[in-house]
Batch of 4 targets.
Target 1
Amino acid sequence: MNNHVNFLIPMLHGMARYNRTDKEFRFYNGSTITLGYCATDGDLDQYQGAEYDVIFIDEATNLREEWVKKITACLRGVNDFPKRVYYTANPGSVSHTYFRRLFVDRQYEDG
């Protein structure tokens, strides 16, 4: 996470302030960029009930498929901002076959 913070602090200078305790960039209009993590099942609790307009998961294949689905379930809200998810990934790791099925093989399941 620090590699993202260290990059974003100078990039957002004058536009947003970073709060290390909340791991959040807050823009002057009230918008936020919130940084999170998921290393265990218990870490998913921090996302319960949250609503995001945009979700970006770095190294997504390192997360278990069920974790990815629970986090992306937070992609919702009542505003008109277009909702979207971005993933970065490298081949291999625990969810490799899940992402390959979706984005390479394009084999979708009902629901």
Target 2
Amino acid sequence: MYDVIIIGSGVTGSSIAMNLSKKNGKFLVLEKNEDVCTGTSKANTAIIHAGYDAKPGTMKAKMNVEGSKICEELSKQIGFPYKRIGSFVMAEDEEGRNELKKLLSQGKENGVEGLEILEREDILKIEPNISDDVICALFAKTAAIVDPFLMNIAMAEVAYTNSVDFKFNQEVKNIYKKENFWVIETENNVYETKIVVNAAGLYSDELHNLISNTKYKIKPRRGQYFLLDKDTYGFVKHIVFNVPSQKGKGVVVTPTADGNTLIGPTAVFIDDKDNKETTQEEFDIISSQAKFTMKNITYGSVITSFSGIRAHELGDDFILKEEKDGFFDCVGIESPGLSSSPAIGIYISDLISKKLKLTDNSSFNSKREPIIKTSELSEEEFNELIKKNPKYGQIVCRCERVSEGEIIDAIRRPLGATTLDGIKRRVRATAGRCQGGFCTSRLIKILSNELNLKKEDVRKNSRDSYILVGKVK
């Protein structure tokens, strides 16, 4: 019998788990995939939004502004990349200026600090590549960029090292109430718990609908992106948006926490929650919209493209509440879900703590062993490190300069990587210019050795994504 079972190990579920681990209790996270951070949390714009565009009085507005305020200090506590660089919403005509004034007023009502409208000549001083048509912009100094993978992973690791259990490849098939506790049936196990937290992202409506007569509907919305090589670093220094529309915040041009440039997303409603395909049509939309804010974009520097799917609930707000005795919903967590996750974790865990009368965990430790990055070490630090462990001197991924020592660390650390993508999210091997063209074979060998697997059993990500499928005769 668990006190709390959280379904979903994305950034929302992991934040709740981390905050619950500050209390005494028996907690479990169930994840249908092979690792944390495998859904919406791994494919987004990696932005901590300031909070001016959410409708005042909504849970989106409340959680966004609170989460944004928490995030910088949290990044220092648990160790994930965070850079406060500010954002611009660009306008190219007086109609757009009027929209910016509305956003400014709305942001102030939401409690966002540091908002102002700048004119073209002031913007050019800090963003020389803005479009010739831009006349003014709303500047939000509190907006930031993060590494969304490491943010999610850091929260999960802290939860795990403070005694939260994680079980993977556990897709939930049924939930029902039995006497005074909940029963959760997965593909191959049955669990019992006093409290259920539904943090299942795109599938949160389906889990909710199993236990409630009030039905929710997630309409999946796909967004596609271009990722540009690090040789574009400095082309854009802030997060740059179009004036938003009903479909979202528009195409964004932004630096990433790792030094790349990211452009996107589109906003296309689809029927299949697993359809992450990319299309030429949507990339044409990205390139045509991006030119309204930035010029001189070098599309020849694109190293990959990808899509993510947002969990848009038809009510258009975050649903964060106890739906039924001991069943807590986190439904419709789309943008600004990443920004809001630190606040959501506190909010839901506080509700649960009060309900169960949980006591403080006096041994809680928010510190985690940092992931060593040899590329960020001084020459002296690097030499000392390889004296202790020569494997840190063996570079496996040349594009991102990731060593064998870092890759082994990614596998051996708490909730360590078990797949190629798991390594990628933790230390960026295969994330560079060649996209794994040169290092994949060595990564397979390391995973095989560390996990005692046959090479043909090493996977890219999910259970059936085998890389080696036969031998050349």
Target 3
Amino acid sequence: MKLQITAKKMQVPQAFNEYAEKKLKKLDRFFGDEADAKLTMSTLKDDITIELTVKYESLIFRAEQRSADKNDALDACVDKIIRQIRKNKTKVEKRLKSGAFEVQESEEIEEQSQYNVIKRKSFRLRPMSVDEAILQMNMLDHNFFMFKNGDTGEVNVVYKRDDGNYAILEPSKD
């Protein structure tokens, strides 16, 4: 697994680099050498936030944790990703075989406008089913996910409602 560590407004000690590499070896049994892991560290007051994103083929796994100790936060992130993999094991295996998950994110562009838009993100939409979109949204730990509906060919947005159910936004036919 290729690891990239980025720190915002702080220095990364060499001991933490070694600890992170050792800790991410746990994920090698799931991904192997082809995976890319990006670990971002930032500090807010006395807490350290660790964000771990693992990209493997067309799947993206993400976990974020805040703690006073960076090692504890990293441990929690790795555990979250392992739980995501186990929870979605059969679904992910099916998707890998069918190749339906091919979302490639492009670079993020920061921008400000009249409505204070601070970030713009673009990515390639691949056809997928609603179930696949919900699975991808849950693996990214997001509240919504935009995708191209494989049945209709239209761009849809799936989102998680406050009651725990899911809803879909789709364009009107008129």
Target 4
Amino acid sequence: MLIKSSTTLRNDYTEISNLAHTNDEPIYITKNGEGDLVVMSIEAFERLEETYKLKAKLAATEQSRINGCKTFSLSESRNRLNNIYEQ
């Protein structure tokens, strides 16, 4: 975990930007010794958003399964896909 002060952000944006891209992890920015912001690269943020979206889809799918929606075994799924791609 990287922690930098708001002064560093204000005075040396380039260093913070390089750290965000190089380390590919969030940087915690403090103000007066307290946590204030989190800074990360756009790439890291987009990956995080995709992870949240995938987790939400998996949770919805699991809830559907719990609610009794039809499920398919691996072999049934493989056969269904083969039938789709053979057409």
